[in-house]
Design a protein that fits this description.
Layout lengths: L2 E5 L5 E5 L2 E6 L3 E4 L2 E4 H5 L9 E2 L2 H4 L15 H16 L5 E6 L5 H14 L3 E6 H5 L8 E7 L3 E10 L2 E10 L3 H20 L7 H17 L7 E6 L2 E6 L2 H6 L4 H12 L6 E5 L9 H5 L5 E5 L4 H8 L1 H5 L7 E2 L1 E3 H8 L13 E4 L2 E4 L3 E3 L9 H4 L5 E5 L2 E6 L5 E3 L2 E2 L2 E5 L4 E4 L2 E6 L3
Parallel strand pairs: 1-7, 7-8, 8-16, 9-14, 14-15
Antiparallel strand pairs: 1-2, 2-3, 4-5, 4-6, 9-10, 10-11, 11-17, 12-13, 18-19, 18-27, 20-21, 21-22, 22-25, 23-24, 23-26, 26-27
């Protein structure tokens, strides 16, 4: 059964199916008359129709009114819905289940909106995961981990904390420091150099401005492996080139890098080993890795573009589970991180049951739960007489019973100790108990 992964980052919504990338769609929307352009098509028109270009709808993701001239666009959620619809239309014939990877700074209201939109679009969602958590699935669990990522209009810094045997992700946001502003600064730097070098101003006409902004992102990224000092602009009259020094590009980031350094420095715990993982979306950023390397006590590493996909693949059973409701995975058991660190497959691992559901009432299992002790209103209280006991050991829950108790697990009479998981059903004296997982 094919599984699609949609990673929500408005710099580019990355889509893969069974671990293979199939689509990238930036979070752009352009209203051209009654046409609504989305993704790459919209990005290529953004400088031609700047007043009707929207780039913040995935970040804001709310129902606040927008200034728009399109019958289907009222607010940011409408634009995100349209974008999600176009993505699903492109992949629906090739995938049967979908997992969403979500930025850690999304609010519960935004998650609710997203799930509602996904349901309306028809996406067969089977799980939501925290992007930073999945990207660090293969990292050693005892290290302090920080994940630096960038979106169109913000930078996120996620702190992966280990507590109570689990790894949790907590995300801070640096507003107005995203790719959109940086592309704008670099484009202006390059335009200024063109004027100095050839007296040609690519920002003079909308068409050449669009060509400039189309070329900047890929040119910056290409510098990751080869520092290109010449910028080329393909015009209708021919190719125009100008030299651009790294120092010029760094100067455009003069207020950007210090904000990142300060944010990272504020998260460092003295006396602890800290690893800063930098997203592949920072590829080619001039001087950034050198600036981060100056942080004391911090090891800086680059995350691959496949990091989230690999993390999801390693924990697929844990994310999807057997016929369970949709869960938002915001933590992982350290035992799972150990498995990943030794490159072993975590097949067969599922989310641990945390509660027993009986008559629409959820009771926490804790370390030990005697089913007979669940406080139920008469006459049910009298009916639950058996000595079935649930035990929580590390990341596994066991049901303990003797045959005289007549404890049934998924319609099978059990005797002794048996592992249970979310979705399993226990029956004692005609009373049903369902194991569930609540994050």
């Amino acid at each position: 059964m094919s599984i699609g992964l949609i990673e929500i980052n408005d710099s580019s919504i990355d889509v893969s199916i069974d671990g293979q990338p199939v689509l990238q769609s930036p979070g752009y929307a352009v209203i051209d008359g009654q046409r609504l352009l989305l993704g790459a098509q919209a990005m290529q028109q953004a400088r031609l129709l700047p007043q009707w270009t929207h780039t913040r709808f995935w970040q804001q993701l709310d129902t606040q009114p927008l200034v728009a001239d399109h019958p289907q666009v009222r607010h940011s959620a409408d634009l995100a819905f349209a974008h999600l619809t176009s993505i699903w239309a492109a992949i629906k014939k090739d995938t049967e289940q979908v997992i969403l990877a979500i930025p850690g700074d999304y609010t519960s209201a935004q998650l609710s909106l997203l799930l509602g939109m996904a349901k309306e679009v028809g996406l067969p969602i089977r799980g939501l995961v925290d992007t930073a958590l999945m990207a660090t699935a293969g990292q050693h669990p005892t290290h302090q981990l920080l994940v630096l990522d960038i979106h169109l209009h913000r930078v996120t810094l996620s702190h992966l904390q280990n507590r109570e045997g689990r790894r949790w992700s907590k995300t801070k946001t640096l507003a107005d420091t995203g790719l959109y502003r940086l592309w704008d600064r670099w484009a202006n730097t390059i335009a200024t150099q063109f004027i100095k070098d050839s007296r040609y101003d690519p920002l003079h006409l909308a068409a050449s401005e669009q060509l400039l902004y189309d070329a900047v992102p890929n040119w910056i990224t290409s510098r990751e492996h080869h520092v290109e000092t010449t910028f080329s602009l393909a015009l209708e009259t021919g190719v125009l080139q100008t030299p651009v020094a790294t120092e010029q590009l760094v100067a455009a980031c003069v207020s950007f890098y210090p904000a990142i350094i300060q944010a990272v420095n504020a998260q460092i715990e003295p006396g602890h080993t800290t690893t800063l993982l930098v997203s592949h979306r920072f590829a080619g950023f001039p001087g950034l890795m050198d600036a981060l390397a100056l942080l004391r006590g911090v090891t800086v590493e680059k995350l691959s573009a496949e990091a989230v996909r690999h993390g999801v693949a390693q924990h697929l059973d844990w994310i999807i589970g057997p016929d369970e409701p949709i869960s938002h995975i915001t933590s992982l058991a350290q035992a799972h991180a150990d498995v990943v660190a030794t490159t072993e497959s975590p097949s067969g691992i599922h989310r641990r049951a945390t509660h027993v559901l009986v008559n629409n009432h959820a009771v926490a299992i804790g370390q030990t739960l005697k089913l007979k002790d669940i406080h139920l209103a008469p006459p049910l209280a009298a009916a639950v007489r058996s000595r079935g006991i649930l035990h929580c050991h590390a990341d596994q829950v066991l049901i303990e019973a003797v045959r005289a108790d007549e404890v049934y697990l998924n319609q099978q009479l059990v005797d002794g100790q048996f592992p249970v998981k979310p979705g399993d059903q226990l029956v004692l004296d005609s009373q049903s108990f369902t194991l569930i997982s609540i994050d």
